[in-house]
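Sample A.
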Amino acid sequence: MKTKKNDRLYVGVDVSEDTLDVYRPDTGESIRIENSEANINDLCKKLKSKKLLVAMEARFATCEDA
């Protein structure tokens, strides 16, 4: 998918406890990074200059022993 200069950059992120799967439809790039603050900051720096829209689904569940 090609984008025009003024178009937004859409990035999909699948969030899990250990990893983030990141997909950029404009380049077809798909990467998996460790779910850590440092890696998230690095990803944000890479994408900072773009008109960015991030789509993600985050699920959180806890289990307690009865």
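Sample B.
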Amino acid sequence: MPVLLAALGALLVSLDSAINIALPAMAEAFGVAPAAIRWVIICYVLTYALTAFAAGVLADRLGPAPVFVTGLWFSAAVFTAYAAAHSYAAVLLLRVLQGLGVGLIYGTAPALVTLSLPREQHGRGLGLMSLGLGVGLATAPALGGALLAAFGWPAVFVFRAPLMLAVAVLAQLRLPHVTSGAPAPRRLGPDELLRLPVLQSALLAFLSNYAQFSVWLLVPFFLVGSLRLPPTVGGLLFTLTPLGNALAAPLGGIATDRIGPRWPLVGGLVVEAAGLLSIAWMTDVSPLTRVGLGLALVGVGVGLFQVPNLAQMMAAFPGARQGVAGGLGFLSRTLGSAVGVQVTAALFDARLARDGFLAAFHVAFLGAGTVCALGVLLALWPAGRRAAV
């Protein structure tokens, strides 16, 4: 039950990608410029990144279950409140509050998995959790579009309130109090975080997410603009990335349990880099099969990578620090996404005015592919021994 609930929590959190399609409608409703609407993303992402790590620290003292359940209840209340959000300031405040609730869920879900399973099944458990994450990312864009067309922008938030409430009730009734059985840990010190296995896992998560977010930022413009695809066709092609992620994550977990995290992790980064570099050479006459293959490769690579990477991070800490390990893993991913979006956008903008869209697109994806290739080299570097349980 803890693994299933962790997967359900990850699924509901990842449904936030449903809001992307609603951002133009929100900008119009509140009379804000398209550039200013980015704060809807920033307020949420930065809050949950920091909260996830703090939640992990708290989970190591209280156990992950009560922190996780609190996040579910709090998130259900925040999603309900979106129905009464009638100003841009109110939406931004709710996004900060939503980030707090999501951080409590994200920061404790990995610990729920690893503390409820024997070590030799950690990969499968984390793979199931990542499957929930991928399913949410794959289904949310289409769901968001349908809700926006039928009910308006508030619906892309409010629809999750009853879903979150149902999972909160289930978790309250069925989630056991899982712990490592070890004494309460001492105060977290820099010496525990600044170890080579921890830094390597965190940096790899940062680099992979940095690279893959070029797809989320620029590929929609390539599909609809350069290839002139109808939004429905472009949306189906774009879904290949999160779908590949969802399908590959359980395989990455199984491989991790059988041969350890290192080689599944390296393989995932190689596939991700191959996908990004193939996208870098696409043009406005590239066949759709080639475009779809490139997008699918990125998704499959990320799916294969994330589970062994998270398993490696969890194994770098003892049982009494599994909350910290999970929170640090999600913090690293989120910081990579945030920095990747900013740097990729800067590279793209620097070439756009002078050389046009396709040239700027190529430079941005060459940069992303190079970052991912650097991740491959880092992953091949031996990181030392894992922590004792």
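B remarks: The two ends are 22 Å apart (CA to CA). Residues 385-389 have pLDDT under 50 and may be disordered.
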